[in-house]
Structure formats: C-alpha cells, structure tokens
Design goal:
The protein has about 190 residues and is an all-alpha fold. The chain contains 8 helices and 2 strands; from the N terminus they run αααββααααα.
Length: about 190
C-alpha cells in the first residue's frame, strides 16, 4: 500500500517534535520519562507498521526492548540484573534510546524529503515544458488557486504525450495528491515572482 508522502512527512515531523519534548524531560530528570518514551516508541512503531516499513519497525521494536529491560532493572548491555545505581543505568538507557530514535526519525525524514524533492524537480521541468509548448500561460497560473484546479490543470497537461509519460514516472514515486500539492506550491511561487 502506497501512502501519501506529505502525510508521512507530517507524521515524522510530529514525532520529531515529540522527541524534542522527551529530550527536555530527560534534561529535567523527570521520573515519568520512561513511560512517555515507551508511548512515543509504540506510536512510532505503529506508524512504521502502517506505512509498511518493516525494517524501521523492527529497529523501533529493539529500542522498546532496550528501554523495557532497563526499566525492569536489567542492564541491557551486560544482560545482568542491577541492584545498585539502577536510576543511573535507566538514565543511560533513556539517553541511548532517545539518540537512536532521533537518528531513525531523521534518516526516514531525509529519505522522504529526497523523494519529494525529486518529484518537485520533475514537476518543475514539466511546467517549463508546458510553458514552451504553450500549454500554460501566466493567466492559467493566476487562475489556478486551489488543489482542485491544480488537479484539473494536471489533467490538461496529460493530453500531451511527453507529459503523460512523465506523469507515469511520477506516479511510480508519488501519489496524485502529492503531485497536486507540489504543483500548487510551484504555481504559487510563480505567481509571486
């Protein structure tokens, strides 16, 4: 199942903001940190499951196990039950989980942004080609002020055989909704210039 890229980006950015809040709890040494971190890990794992990214889902599962072991008084590195300095061991585990989760989220977001940027670049080329072919004018751009109008404009573009091929290529990477949003963003920039 393919997921709307802008939805995925929004979700990952939301998780990043929640991660920042968890980092702040870590700095303040809050006692509820491991519970809220576990909930964040559960939510992130559910998201990766929903979007079908099993390797990321597995990595988050490992972080959950790591945190759960530390919360239960077992040193996740030595695999031994600790009787002293348990709170320190838990803080170290929390720091490790926070940093690893941050890396996973950043990497997933980078990959997603790269996909969106590639699609945007291709779309920009289509718009330039449409200008050259007289398929679009400044008047068209000014009138295209909603996502529905962007979708209709894209349908008009598809009457051109070259653009129809580019459309198929784009749809291998992104959904039509992503194309409409990117087209709207690009046309908005052209209106302001």
């Amino acid at each position: 199942m393919r997921i709307f890229l802008h939805f995925k980006k929004q979700q990952l950015e939301l998780f990043n903001s929640r991660l920042i809040a968890e980092n702040e709890k870590f700095i303040r040494k809050e006692f509820s940190l491991e519970k809220s971190m576990m909930q964040l890990l559960i939510d992130v794992q559910d998201y990766f499951k929903q979007v079908g990214e099993s390797s990321n889902e597995e990595n988050i599962s490992r972080l959950k196990i790591y945190l759960d072991m530390a919360s239960g008084g077992i040193d996740p590195v030595k695999m031994e039950r600790t009787k002293t300095n348990r709170r320190d061991m838990l803080r170290i585990a929390c720091f490790y989980v926070l940093s690893q989760l941050g890396e996973h989220l950043d990497q997933a977001l980078r990959i997603l942004i790269d996909s969106i940027e590639k699609a945007k670049e291709t779309l920009n080329q289509v718009i330039l080609s449409a200008y050259q072919s007289k398929l679009i004018t400044d008047t068209h751009i000014k009138k295209t002020d909603s996502l529905d109008k962007c979708a209709k404009l894209w349908e008009q573009f598809q009457q051109n055989e070259q653009i129809k091929l580019i459309d198929k290529k784009l749809k291998l990477e992104v959904l039509q909704q992503d194309i409409n949003i990117l087209l709207d963003q690009t046309l908005t920039k052209l209106k302001t210039n």
